[in-house]
Design goal:
mainly beta, six-stranded antiparallel β-sheet, 15 strands, 0% helix
Length: 179
């Protein structure tokens, strides 16, 4: 603009629905500035705790003519930028005992935790199996284990029992698979 006066620049970050997710972005250049020519402003924004998705920088120039703010401010959306999801799950499975007598039920407890920084899982499928020392399948949980709405930091615990294991003297391994 070649109009005389000054202005202040406000920059925020908005999501795809133009809801502000960071209302005060730190500017690295000073404001106010004179409304002549082109002005560049750099900015930084910490994305920690922000969900993956598409975002925009929104700039608003509040013009001051003879000391009075001219309404409405000039507003512009920058190019879209995407925050990639960092998906991370932690899983563990344990049995209630280290050694079983023939015929004892085997109790397993699986723990699944969402350790993602910015991704909530809508739906996950878990399989729990018991394998022999040759990695042959001895038993599998007979029903579907579905986990829904696993938010960042959430933990789910699944407990299952193999009620009547057949008699076999073998080292067994429990396996948890999450997809």
């Amino acid at each position: 603009s070649t109009e005389a006066g000054s202005a202040t620049l406000a920059i925020d970050v908005v999501d795809a629905l133009t809801h502000a997710v960071a209302a005060q972005v730190e500017l690295t250049t000073a404001t106010p500035f004179i409304l002549t020519g082109t002005h560049n402003a750099g900015t930084t924004w910490s994305t920690q705790g922000i969900l993956a998705g598409d975002y925009y920088l929104r700039g608003q120039v509040h013009r001051l003519i003879n000391g009075l703010e001219e309404m409405p401010p000039i507003e512009a959306l920058g190019n879209v930028f995407t925050i990639q999801a960092t998906k991370a799950l932690e899983g563990a499975i344990k049995s209630d005992k280290r050694t079983y007598a023939i015929g004892d039920p085997i109790r397993l407890r699986a723990t699944i935790q969402n350790e993602s920084l910015n991704y909530a899982f809508d739906s996950l499928h878990a399989d729990i199996e018991i394998l022999d020392e040759s990695d042959r399948l001895l038993w599998k949980v007979p029903s579907e284990l579905e986990l829904t709405d696993l938010a960042i930091g959430d933990t789910r615990v699944i407990e299952v029992i193999w009620e009547s294991p057949f008699a076999a003297e073998t080292r067994m391994t429990a396996r948890l698979t999450v997809s």
